[in-house]
Structures are given as C-alpha cells and as structure tokens.
Amino acid sequence: MWRGRKLSSSGNRFLGVLRSSCWGTQAEGARLTRSAENQFSWTPQSKPWVFSDYKIMWFKSYRMTFACLNRMKIYRYPWTRLYSSQSTVDSSEIKTFLALAHRWWDEQGVYALLHSMNDLRVPFIRDNLLKTVAQHQPGKPLSGIKILDVGCGGGLLTEPLGRLGASVIGIDPVAENIKTAQHHKSFDPVLDKRIEYRACSLEEIVEETAEAFDAVVASEVVEHVIDLETFIQCCCQALKPGGSLFITTINKTQLSYALGIVFSEQITGIVPKGTHTWEKFVSPEKLESILESNGLSVQTVAGMLYNPFSGYWHWSENTSLNYAAHAVKSTEQEDPVPEFVFKGETEELRHKDSTNPGVQEELKK
Question: Does residue 79 carry a pLDDT above 80?
C-alpha cells in the first residue's frame, strides 16, 4: 500500500536523520579487529539496537572466513602435533582403573589376561626391535634401546622389557597405578635402575621429550583413549626417525562385541564390567590408515586369540577379535609445498605464462 507514495517534507527530514545515524553506526561497526592469533577471523563491533542492520555484514565476514579457509590447503609434517593442549585421556576411564589399581600383580585376578598376553607381546616387541640392532648382548638383547610404555598400568609389560636390558619409561594418568608399579619395581634392584615411572599423560611427555624414543608401546590402550588420531600423532612425535610403534588392541566387529563385552564382562566376568566401550574399538584398516597418515609405515598386523579354558593366548591369521600391529616411523622428511593457487586461477596462470617454458614445466608437474 506504500508503493509509489511520496513522503512529506517531514518524512524526508526523518529519513535524512536516519541515514546519517545509520552511516555513523556503520562506520563504528566497520571497525573490525583481527584475533590475537592473526587468523582470518573478524568480529564486527555493533550496538545491540542496530545489530539487525548489520547482521548481513556479520554473515558476510564469516562467509569470507570460510571461503579463505576452504581455498587454502594446509600442509604439515606428519609428525607435527596439531592439538597442543588437547588431552587424549578419558576421565571416565580413569575412574574405572583407579578402583582396580591395587590388583595389577594378582596373576589370577582381573588382569590375568594381560599377564598371559606377555607370552605374545614381549617376544613380538623384542624380535621386531632386534631387527634394527646390529649387535646385542647375551641376556640383555634390548640394551641401549629406549622405550616409552604408554598406559603402563602397574608395569606388567614395563618390567619384562626392562629385564631384556631396555631403558623404559612407563607413564600412566592414574597416579595409583604408578604407585603400584613403583612399589613392585622396588623389589628388583636391577629394574630400579632401568625403569622410570611417571604419573602423566602422553601429551606431557611429548612436550618434554620429542623424538627421544627408539620404541613406543601402547598395549591395550588405544581402545580407552578419547581421541585416537591425536594419540597416534603424539606417539609418532615421541619416536625417533626410524623408531617403532607397537600396538595391541581390539577390532571393532560384531564378534568382538559378543565375546569381548557380553561374554567376557557380562557373563563370565573374566574382564571387569565396564572396562571396554565397543564404540572405541578400532579396526586394523582404520588404525593402519591413521598410522600411514602420520608418517608411520605398517610392517605387521597379526591376530591374537585367547583361550579362556587354557588361559593362554596364541597367534592367529584372524584379526576379528584382538590383534597386534607394528609400524615404523619414516626417516625421510619431505618439505611441504604450499599451494596458494585458488580454484579458477590455475587456468588463468596457464594462459598468462603459456609462453614461459619454465612455468609450463612446473604446471605439468
């Protein structure tokens, strides 16, 4: 009903005042501030009562942000950690293991399966590490090798590795687990010199000692972390170039749910109820993909089966339940080449420099 209708002189004066007011506020709102991190992030300063006038500008600024980020390709070394302050420790998991901290060295108790698993995992680690050692001492084949045992618990795997001559640092976020491990280690003076325990997270160790270890062991750990990709990144950061990462874990299959959770935890009770969460299980394919994307070359993936009647583990070609993986960190460091050519600009570059042989060769690559 207002279309085509002329305004009175008073209406025109009102619009003039309104325009000047809006332009003044827009000038104020246009003062955009860069973030402290110098990122492509902008925040318009506008008053609440005129925000509706500038919400379009607000959306445009963020659309510009996303457009820039989508056009830019971010390069990093595979071993560069992206989440410096993010922890992979799950607080709910800590509560579970805290209640069992005093039971680690009961070979017939809740950790009987881990005691028995040493018959497979200790030789698996030893034999693969010996492939990288030219000479070794009899009785101490891992002498001179520095190992990080992540999620060491009470030291069930840390101590056998120390007895093989390795210098081992065992870490665990549960302080009570570390107290149990230190107490048990104190009975053997030899181990007291070779093993060090710390109550801390993997991220804290990486902050202090990056690329310091010949091997990192994460046995029955990755199915308990809250962020698997960050965890693998940190493991890779802790390794020297050419170092080995050893992982044992549980596959994410229907069979692993039926046997690993329903049978083991809810029916027989050979594993404490609530120890595992099926959603955190990881398939060998997914684990291998994460390892490869972080500069680790997978050498071996082998299935592991537990016989509840005999109480022993044995190797298997079937990885549908438990499996072990060995990966080696690459020794080659390729320089990243940022690509700042946006979509649609490649053809323009070809057209402009079509007469330049050097540019033609680069574009062919």
Answer: no
